[in-house]
């Protein structure tokens, strides 16, 4: 609680109210002492009136009058004559004399504090003016113990009352701060957390509604900042999508152009003079195109367009992939095999499915070729009750641990030097667009096998 704004405000309020009460307490206790002494002067004057009415008082009656007035002696000066009106034995010498007629505020405060902190029972003389002009002055002699007891009792009551007032005031201020300040601030903080979780969602932008002017200005500034940031994020997202789209297209286009580049190598061996003359230009153009595609692979990811689903004869798509890849490797280095029923048809986007199988076959072929040992890449498929399954398996060295760990992460799952790691990422996303999955089924020193699963249902209820 001490670390919260409202908690610290509560403590500070209590301390400040108590400090104010202490500042009030000092003059209050001085005022109480003055009233106490004047009250005893007045009671002593009333007691002396009995003597004025009857010059001779019995000793018992005089003692009773002095006890009621809580004094030892009463001296009244009338017409310049100082007269001892009532008297009794004084147990101690007079220690101090206080004249209330000429005492200022500071003197009264100093005398009160001295009286409060001196515990000894002393005899003091108090001088004051009689009430109703009944003489020039009145003087009494009294003990300080009853006075100090009364002052301590009064002080304790004042302190208790001050504590109650300060606590009650602090609680009210605590509630007020919670309602008018802390709660709105928490609302702003909560909005900031919600906005941080989804900054692209315009619904999370704060709507200023605070009553306090300063807090409303903060909300308006935050709203303006969030609005600008959301627009900037959307703009950056569009740029990222554009860059990602270019990267994806470039990746697959590079594969296609590489195959075309291999075909041009064959064309260069033609005996036709025209072909031999045009082939180098074609090779240069394709080489530049491949280089351009590779340079764009640094762009970020983006969502692929939704697939156009039709019933596709799978063997024709797979055979196109194998035909385009068959000339990539030296004879006997990589064997490409197809084990797909001729009549197997499935629901897919033929162009996207071609790209997926091409990526998987090319990765497998490159892995085998890198070993320098002959190997086989096999594309197979089967039809189940609920899904079609396509498998691309090879007899290569298997994926390294780091590649398996970051298999479907862009720019992290590459298995060869210079690879971007986009191939499997693109393939997996294209299959997800079909409602299916692309999984690594097996990978070790005996080879690697990927499984594509495409559901038969069309996703409708």
TrEMBL record:
TM annotation in the entry: 6-30, 158-181
Entry coiled-coil feature ranges: 215-242
InterPro entries: HATPase_C_sf, HATPase_dom, His_kinase_dom, HisK_dim/P_dom, HisK_dim/P_sf, Sig_transdc_His_kin-like_C
Entries under SUPFAM superfamilies matching the protein: ATPase domain of HSP90 chaperone/DNA topoisomerase II/histidine kinase, Homodimeric domain of signal transducing histidine kinase
A GO molecular function held by the record: kinase activity
Pfam families registered for this protein in UniProt: HATPase_c, HisKA
UniProt-listed Gene3D superfamilies: 1.10.287.130, Histidine kinase-like ATPase, C-terminal domain
Protein name: histidine kinase
Organism taxonomic ancestry: Bacteria, Pseudomonadati, Pseudomonadota, Alphaproteobacteria, Rhodobacterales
